[in-house]
Amino acid sequence: MKKSLRNLKSKQSKTLILFTIIISFSFMTGDKPAYRLFDIAGKEIKYSKMLDKLKKADIILFGELHNNPICHWLEYEVLKDLHSENKNIIAGAEMFETDTQLMIDEYLKGIITSRSFESQMRLWSNYSTDYKPLIEYSKENNIMFFATNIPRRYANYVYREGLPALSKLSDESLENIPPLPIEYSKELDCYWSMTSHNSVHEETTFLADAQAVKDATMAYIILDNFSKGKIFLHFNGTYHSDNHEGIVWFLKKQTPSLNIVTISTVTQKNIDKFSDENLEKADFILAIPESMSKSY
User: Fold this and answer.
1) Which residue range forms the structural domain that includes residue 167?
2) 129 contact partners, CB below 8 Å, separation of at least 6
């Protein structure tokens, strides 16, 4: 009888262990993470490991998808976590144009109110949900925040007339862009693709020039406000820094020794496995499900 009870208890114990394993496995397979992080070779890594490398960077270019809420949440977390380790962090973003810097400075210093700031700035439609948290965190923690993008009227001018047309701008206008002439390599994939696939369109427009002048301006503002011992965390559309081109090319052209770390954002149908087409796109790749909701 005792032997039978022992056998029964043993079977029950094994059954319980097996049930626990099955339940645990079902939870794991049923998990739906909002994102996964991969390194440049496509190996999955933890956020803490990425943060360790970001802490050692001179300049970080966080490439986002403008309408993706996961990007904006992680941008905020990176800013907060880096600031907790290094009070010498500086921030900047493509979403603000250089001729608005005075208003940004005044708002961060408490000279103008939030209402005045938001009514007078040329803000993106998703500012309140996606970029305001970055500005507010910077304001609360005395972090310098720079507008890095060329004013859109000049980008549009270049799009219509080409880079040489910038020489026609007044001295006052030229204060908002890098020193002339602005030159770039048209062999870089990020610019070459704009001309090779739009040959008819390029007869009347200068799409690659317009892209290059944005990258050049962002690089110029970053370098103009960076100094050793600080970290410049920059937020930009992923295309501006993918494949270590765009902004990276202009930064390296001026200062080759910079330790630049890039983050690219991609969407995949399944983020459990890294898609080979995204290999080497950046030092770190933020993979987000295609089904993730959009902010606009």
Assistant:
1) 36-289
2) 69, 72, 295
Q: Is residue 141 situated within a structural domain?
A: yes
Backbone angles phi, psi at 242, to 5 degrees: -60, 145
User: Cα separation of 227 and 219, whole Å?
Assistant: 14
Tokens of 248: 């990276």
Question: Structurally, how many domains does the chain consist of?
Answer: 1
> What would the pLDDT profile of 52-106 be if each residue is shown by its tens digit?
999 999 999 999 999 999 999 999 999 999 999 989 999 999 999 999 999 999 9
Specify if 27 maps to a domain: no
Q: How far apart are CA 34 and CA 270, in angstroms?
A: 11
> What are the tokens at 253?
């052209």
Strands (E), the chain: 36-39, 44-45, 59-64, 89-97, 145-149, 231-237, 260-268, 284-289
Q: Which single residue is written with the structure tokens 């500005």?
A: 135
Terminal-to-terminal C-alpha distance of the chain: 70
